[in-house]
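Replying to the earlier thread about multi-chain prediction with a worked example.

Input:
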Amino acid sequence: MDIARDNILQRVRAALRVEAHRPPAPTGTPIFPPIADPEARFREEFAALKGDIIENAEKLRVFLNGFSKIATDGSELTSKTVGEPNAGVRECDLGVTSCDCLVAQTGSVVVSTLSAGGRALSVLPPTHLVIARREQIVPDLATAMTLLRKRYDRHWPSTLSVITGSSRTADIEKILVMGAHGPKRLALYFAD
Amino acid sequence: MTTATLRQFTRDATVKTADLRHRAVIQKNIASYDAAVARGMTRFADWQNARSHAAAIKWETINHLDHYLEQFERNVLTNGGHVFWAETAADAREHVLLLARRHGVHKVVKSKSMTTEEIHLNEALEAADIHTIETDLGEYICQIRGEPPYHIVTPVMHLTKSDIARTFQEKLGAPLTDSAEELAMIARANLRREFMTADMGITGANFAIADTGMIALTENEGNARLSFSLPPVHVAVVGIEKLIPRFEDLALFWPLLSTSGTGQAITVYNSLIGGPRQAREVDGPREFYVILLDNGRTRLLADPEQRDALHCIRCGACLNACPVYKNIGGHAYGTTYQGPIGSVITPHLRDAREWSHLPYASSLCGACTDVCPVRIDLHHHLLHNRRNAVQSRFDNPVQRILFHAWFWAMQSSTRYAIAGKLGNLALRLGIAQPLLRPWTAKREFPMPPRHSFRDYWRQHGHRA
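Result:
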């Protein structure tokens, strides 16, 4: 028996006996403009956020050579693409993960504890590399949410994050500084 | 009624209004915000319709809040989390302290949360010998300066780089720098150590999703993600008005909050937390607690006229649009929530008499209502709060007599003409000016012309 719970719910119910004025109804027109070419839009948005798209296997090799301690989510896709990890998430200088989907509208990468090797791997390392397939690009956030619902409903992972660019802050005089707490750099490689 | 709170407000507002350096800092900051928001809005096909959708969803939630609260609670429990209910700020603090004791917590990392500011959680934790560290850069700067946040979204809007550099030098022994990046990196290095050794992470919630039992956190830095990923216990303090019905609603609310908050299409990290680490997961806290906070919200809910103030998603747009906020600054209000939304809700959430002066800190221009992404009728609510204050006789008795006199004079052309003549004479003789001191102290008061418009009209008007 939780007295605070009962009191709060009782006050809520008593308060709601009088209905509040209803706001004017929204119209049926779309909220966001349509997206004609999701892949082109994704690339444009991702680049505008200072994300790097690694364009081919050779460039990926050069990129990976820049890191000595690499942690990965151990998924089939990342293992096939970058090999096995040689460091844990707390020591690594690069975290490599897969993702749930990519959102063209905002240039976002959607990760979950299940798709990206837990909570820390996509936020703690100084650089985050996402391995994805082009077919994972969805046009907008609404489609992404529908897809996640279909994939996880009633068996949700404990966390999901929509990642849009690398960590940044503008708390000081609105001056943009990259790498506030999370990765300073976000990179993406299409494995297909 | 002159309370200590009102005296403090008048004093601080007077000082800040005449502080030109303060004004320059705020104007620069808000100008870059305005430019970003204008760009951000072009990403919507129909911003006005987006606002209408958001208002309709929040109306549905708030007007069936009991249903959504119970659904949310059920789903959090199913996901393996725990839910506590707190009627007051003291109850919420007590829950957190109890959990801290239960889990042997010595160090807490916090991500930015106005709700925890509202309940003065840091002071309570520190008093219990629990080292508590704010990890959002702006909040961290506030904490080491011993200042409350100046703005609900931009905590140190009032400080320049050099102010912050001096604070870091003084309080952290850091070398002076004029680089924002170096300052941010000092904070990053210091806070990284704290994240690694904290026993509990405390967050607020930007939204609570009823149909999946998740909380949603919006941020740019990654400190919220670290706060709910690394420590073994995660506690989220959530106002009961944060509910939204469906997971899918975030496809609208995330861009809406980001656009109004900073002008970004969506902030860097938008996360959903639905429980503790699961057996199939590799990391994460072993416990997840949600504290649902009332603390006066049900009083606001019981006022159908102003119930829509609970739709607020704390984007800060009404602060940035408010000519009064831009002049007196965030600290003068003396409240957790500043600006128009603060002046609407504070008299309901806290003591109505003590805070009855806040709705007068408005020109009623309506800019706040125009920018509100969830269409809260802010400037009318400010007017409603003035009416409530007068009806409860919280207003100044002298002011009340003057308004009665004004009302009496306005009802008759003769009385109005006589009052006008007397006023004109009093100004010309210089007897009225001392009564207008609060206005004239910092401004020139022009002499009124000898003849009134009525005189002029009588002589020339019909021929003009």
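Chain B touches chain A through 102 residues (CB under 8 Å).

Feel free to reuse this layout for your own posts.
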